[in-house]
Structure formats: C-alpha cells, structure tokens
Predict the 3D structure of the following.
Amino acid sequence: MRALVTGGTGFIGSHVVRALLDRGYRVRALVRPGSDRANLAGLEVEFVEGDVRDFRSVQAAVQGCSLVFHVAALYSFWVRPRTLIDEVNVEGTRNVLQAAFEAGVERVVHTSSVAALGLRPDGRPADETVRPSPNTLIGDYKRSKFLAQEVALDFARRGLPVVVVNPSFPVGPGDRKPTPTGQVILDFLRGRMPAYVDGGLNVVAVEDVGVGHVLAAERGKPGELYILGGENLSMREFFQILADVSGQPAPRIRLPAAPLLPLAYLSAGWATLTGKVPRLTPDTARMARHRMFYDPGKAIRELGLPQTPARAALRQAVEWFRENGYVTSPRGEY
C-alpha cells in the first residue's frame, strides 16, 4: 500500500515516513523544489516535487496512493508576509483534502495541533472536546491551525475518511529549523535562558507522534480528533529535566508574564526594521502565561499511542542538537 506524506522532509513528517516504512508501507513524499531532504537521507522514499499551494501538483502526487498524511504546515509564530501562513496552513489543507476526495483515497490523516484546541479555565489538562476561546486562540499560527482543522472536519462531514491528530509539543531528533519548542531547548543549551515564566507545556517524543499518525490511519475513526501528547510539565520542571540530561544549570529566576508583552512588541518592532526573526513575539509572550496541559488519554486508549518518558525524549533532543553542530561544546557554547 502506498502512502503520500506532505511535509515529509520536516520534523514530524520525517518521523511519519519512518514509521510507515517500519510497517512495510511504500512512501511517496511531496517536497518543494530545493527543499532540504537530509531528514530522509538513505530511506527508500519516492520524491515528487510540488507545493500544497499548487492544486495541480497535489493532484498528481495523490494519484495511486491509498493513504494521505497531510503533515505540511508553517509552524512559526513569526511569518512575513502574514498572508503566507493562511496560504499554506488553510488553503494548502483544502487543496490536499480536495485532491484526496476526488481520488477516492481510503484514509486521510490531517496533522492539526493542540494549538487548535482550547484550555480548561481550572488548569486541568484539556481533551479533544475543549473548544478554543479568544483568550487561547492567540495569533496567526493558532488561528490558521484552527481554521485548517475546521476544513478537515468539514471534509469528514462530506464523506472523506479523514482522521485529525493534534500533536502537542514534540521534541527529539531531526528538528533542523528548529521548531519553536526546539528553539527553547537550543537557547537553554547556549546559555541564553537565565529565567523562566511559570507556564507549562505537554512534551511528547517526536517518534511517538510519527507512530501515532500511522495508528490513526489504521485504527482512528473518521471525523474524530486525537491528541498525540505525552507528559505535562511546568516550565520549572521542563528546565530541570533539561539541566539533568545536559549537565547545565537550570534557570533559577521566575519572571512574571506581564512585563514580557511590552518587551515582545519592542522585539517585534526591531525585527520588522531588520528583517530578522524575533526571539520573543507578542504571541509567544501571551502564550507564556498559560499552562498548556493536554490529556492524550483518548489516543492511548483507542490508538495505542506509545508514551516515551519526557526525560528520554528531551535527552534525545539534546544529544541530537549537540551531535549535529547546533551546540559546539558539552557546556553549550555556540
């Protein structure tokens, strides 16, 4: 059985490809011309060039595939021009699902995000039933992932057998860009994280997310959402684990979230003038005050989602960044 993976060269996508190959599937990857294919080096993958924004190239890529994994997305809290994130995340999703619908594929797995879900006011981990609110649907990225998820659910109502997965904050090998979560790990390893804000996040091994996609295709119910998550950690716990596995000291100073917002606007203004990507954006400053905790119980029960301990996943991330030259010494200098 042949499976198409959009975004197959990316962080999550490359682990979806590996999970498919491990289970005996034939894999075709839709890749943009000139994209970095290092994450798939040495693997038996058929590459087809195209772009999710180009419907004709997506149509051609889907032909002959029984399964489609739509993983491609812009995962960034600073995209310029801002219209690009909707072109890729929303309209790109519409193109892929329309092509899959017309081709009559057996199953589609759409990679959404916990960014498209809400948070519980009392701080308890949110599940797939918690809808986002204006207070939690912060910024262009989260809005685009929510809208893309709505597109996927609409196709499910029209009869396309699409399953939606919502990864939390994956960490591990292959985070080449890196993702925003990977950048936090890198900043810590480079000694640029002297303090932290008392938020929180759900850490999941990226290998588990890759396997979770395949399990969603094999066992998931069309029209359903599945959180592909792991352990909920406060930022203090997150940095303490990083300190333990890296040998570097954890930040001791806890900052209030309120002063971050004016600093973020200054950082964004400077980035607009210089063309650089800011380390702190207004969106990330607003998110920092939330404990983004999620409950992956449904995916564990219904899909058999594996649960690698966060400590092991973070250790792998640290080792991969060091081995691949992102951090040039054991103590984190860069």
